[in-house]
Structures are given as C-alpha cells and as structure tokens.
Amino acid sequence: MDRKSKFSTSQERATNPLVWCAAIICTVLTVAVIIAGVVTFIGYLVIHPRVPYVSVIDAHLDRMQLDYAGVLEIQVTILIRARNGNQKAHASFSESTYTLGLNGKVVAQLVASPFEVGKNSWVDFNYVVPSSPIPLGPEEAEDVDAGLKKDLIIFDLKGGTRVRWRIGHLGSLRFLCGLDCHLHFHPLNGTYVPSRCTSKTK
Ligand SMILES: *[C@@H]1O[C@H](CO)[C@@H](O)[C@H](O)[C@H]1NC(C)=O
C-alpha cells in the first residue's frame, strides 16, 4: 500500500512541471490576447468619434406636385452638417455629391464645392433642391400618388464626400464618408420625420 502510493506520487511530480509550463504559456497567451483586445477597443473609442462625418440634421419638403399628365415637381431643402471632431487638424471636404431618389428614380442632385472645416468644428450646408419638371411613367405616377394620399413620401439620399486631414508636414489621412438613407416627409405640411442619417466612414 505504502509503496504504491509513493510510486503514484512520484509520477505526479514528474508530470507537474510540463503541465505547469503549458498552463503558464496558455495564461500568458490569454492575457496577451485580452490586452490586445482592450487596447484595440480603447483605440477605437478614442479615435472613432473624431473621424469626420456628414449627417442630415434637418429637411423640409417645400413643394410637391403631381399633375394629371404625370409630371412631378418638387422642391426640397436638406440641411447637411459636415463635422470634424479632430482637435488638431483641419479637414478638407471635396467631391460632395448626393443624389435624391424617389422610388428608385433620381429626381435631383446635390453638389457642393470643396470646403474646409476647422479644428473641432462643423459647417452646415443648406441644400435647396429645386427640381425641374420630371415626367413620370404611369406606374411611377401611381406610386407617388399613393404616397401623397397616405401623406408619406420617402426619398432616398445617397452619395458621399471625400475628406482629408492634413497632419503637419507628415502627410494626410483620407476618408470616404458615404450616406445612404431614407428621408421621410409628410407632403401635406412638408415636415420631415427626423431619423438617423449619418455617414459611414471607409
Ligand atoms: C405635419 O403632419 C404630420 C402628419 O399629419 C403631423 O404628425 C405633424 O405634427 C405635422 N407637423 C406640423 C408642423 O404641422
């Protein structure tokens, strides 16, 4: 009895260093992975909100008419804010182009000349989009008519802008801010139903 138990104890002792070694390596690896994850997450939290973005902050449907021949006339005002949350760098916005679509048909284009946004600042653009008469096909006219009767018109706003941060003499960081959202309006009184419409950065 005594010898047997001694034998097993010595065998346990023999395997212990290897097990310990594996356990220590695993622990070190696990801790390293956790630290890397935490560092990445904190970096994301610190940097991400400062990335420039564009956002629709208000809109109004000034006019929307559909005549019996199926010709549509609209005027929309869209207020888009270009925000630069960086405390140290100016942001240059260029190639700001957005298309306004209605049931998949492009009804207007919003374009802005290049502009600068200061450190930790923003610029609001009031796009007044007067659209020339748009002839609609019978089905398109029917869709628009149904929306007018329901008092709910949904436009698609798609497009984006290029943004550049100049970092001293080191160079610059470029972003592409893309907008892709639905803007809901009540055509009877022209009100915009606010919803989240903020660019995603690539
Ligand atoms: C406009 O009409 C909608 C729907 O009828 C209503 O919810 C909204 O309060 C109205 N807004 C104004 C400013 O009258």
Automatic annotation (TrEMBL):
One of its GO terms (biological process) is defense response to other organism. The keyword Cell membrane does not apply. GO terms for cellular component: plasma membrane. It is found in: Membrane. InterPro entries: NDR1-like. The chain crosses the membrane at residues 20-47. Keywords: Membrane, Transmembrane, Transmembrane helix. This is Late embryogenesis abundant protein LEA-2 subgroup domain-containing protein.
